[in-house]
Amino acid sequence: MLEKIIEPKKQISKEQQIFSNKRLWQLIYPILVEQILILLVGIADTLIVSYAGESAVSGVSLVNQINNIFIIVFMSLASGGAVIVSQYIGRNELDKGKLSSGQLIMISFVISIIIGAILLVSREILLRFLFGKTEVDVMEASITYLTITVLSFPALAVHQACSAIFRSMAKTKITMYVSFLMNVINLSGNMIGVFLLKAGVKGVAIPSLISRCVAAFIMLVACFYRKNIIFVKFKYIFHFNKEIIKRILHIAIPNAIEGGLLEAAKVVLNSIVALFGTSQIAANGVSQNLFNMSSLFSSVMGPVFITVIGHILFHPCTFTLASGLRAAGDVKFTLYSGIFSTVVVRVLSAFILGIWLNMGVIGVTFSMVIDWSVRFTVNLLRYKSGKWKTFEVI
Questions:
Q1: How far apart are CA 129 and CA 131, in angstroms?
Q2: How far is CA 295 from the centre of its chain?
Q3: CA distance linking residue 159 with residue 196, whole number of Å
Q4: C-beta of residue 183 within 8 angstroms of C-beta of residue 212
Q5: CA–CA separation, 299 and 25 (whole Å)
């Protein structure tokens, strides 16, 4: 039924298929495994830190919502770069793809340094402004956790950028292996920090810093491997190309604003949850990891769409796949609809249900469900309209 609502089934001959079902699965499953690992480690992290006390769980939960805003920025930059690199591969303009890869790494690193510096300087002011009514122990845990995790932003940004480059080449296994290693280091470090060293919040934050640095180093070295169709040279990184950066940011900025607003809304919702006491903050933090399971497959398909659409965009047989080729350029609509759904629907309904109707954290959760429903409906109508077919990126 859903298939008929979205689009009637169309058959493509094997001769016209650029990505066979087998090749698509080879592209999808490493990203799926990677996302499952991230999700499971996130749940395990929450369980481990719970042994450090309710205040530690609450502090980590509150700070992660702030961190996620800026992680979205890094992911948006990586996605913007992946779109450009994928399409240059599709056009067989590999030199421009290599230059774009270097520019992506450079701009990701620079922006992460700027964001990290601002957060380090203003961390206490920011946390007290957002969560000033929380208990003293929760605030101290939040400040400690934010200070350490912000130091990992440059490594995280570089890791995201390098992973996007490999996904653009349809090489997703290396990102899966590195993600597995990163999560093993993180989880092992958490267990040592919390159970053996009794380091509390520091025992959770420091392993995150170490694991992200290791992952960034491995992925960056791999990007210099010359047998890849797209590889990076130092001159590509230490060179400012205004045109390429403009193209990357054209995709990245609307995505970052939309995703950042969504995460900012979660911070506002957490500020509301903070009014209900430490136990509800902790319960909300644990439940967020479970909610992430519902969006797991959509998180996987996003990078896959970027790679596939980019590779086939300029192929001679693209007329057979006209229903999806220029979708990546329709960024303004998703930005505006995202702002409406986040600010008007999610935040407003959270205030009404959570505070006015006195439903507490359950009301905040219902506001998320309402937001998801509105987003699905609006995006489905946009897809059916076909207006997204008129956009181009390069």
A1: 6
A2: 12
A3: 29
A4: no
A5: 15
The answer to the question of residue 8 being in a domain is no
Report the C-alpha gap between 343 and 337 in whole angstroms: 10
What's the pLDDT tens digit per position in 321-333?
A: 323 333 345 667 7
With a CB cutoff of 8 Å and minimum separation 6, the contacts of 211 are 182, 183, 185, 186, 189
Q: What is the pLDDT of residue 327?
A: 38
Alpha-carbon distances of 358 from 25, 89, 272, 273, 353, rounded to whole Å: 47, 54, 11, 11, 7
CB 169 within 8 A of CB 23: no
The single-letter code of the amino acid at 16 is Q
197-204 LR contacts (CB < 8 Å, sep 24+): 200/52, 200/53, 200/56, 200/141, 201/49, 201/52, 201/56, 201/59, 201/60, 201/141, 201/144, 201/145, 202/144, 202/148, 203/52, 204/45, 204/48, 204/49, 204/52, 204/56, 204/60, 204/145
- In 3D space, the residue among 292, 289, 277, 175 whose CA is nearest the CA of residue 222 turns out to be 175
Domain-located, residue 368: yes
For 353, other C-beta atoms within 10 Å of its C-beta total 20
How does pLDDT run across 124-174, given as a tens digit for each residue?
Answer: 998 888 777 778 888 898 999 999 999 999 999 999 999 989 988 878 788
pLDDT digits (tens, 9 = 90+) for 345-382: 888 888 888 788 877 767 777 787 788 788 778 777 77
Distances (CA, A) of 50 to 47, 99, 195, 279: 5, 45, 11, 12
Domain residue limits at 213: 20-390
Residue 36, both tokens: 């499952």
Give the total number of structural domains in the chain. Answer: 1
Task: Tell me, yes or no, whether 380 lies in a domain.
Answer: yes
Tokens of 135: 């208990």
User: Is residue 58 assigned to a domain?
Assistant: yes
Which has the higher per-residue pLDDT, 32 or 205?
Answer: 205
Give the per-residue pLDDT at 324: 36
What distance in Å separates the CA atoms of residue 387 and residue 394, rounded to the nearest whole number? 18
Q: Dihedral sign for Cα 353, 358, 360, 362, please.
A: negative
DSSP state string for 279-329: HHHHHHHHHHHHHGGGGHHHHHHHHHHHHHHHHHTTSTTGGGGTTSTTGGG
Cα 341 to the center of its chain, rounded Å = 19
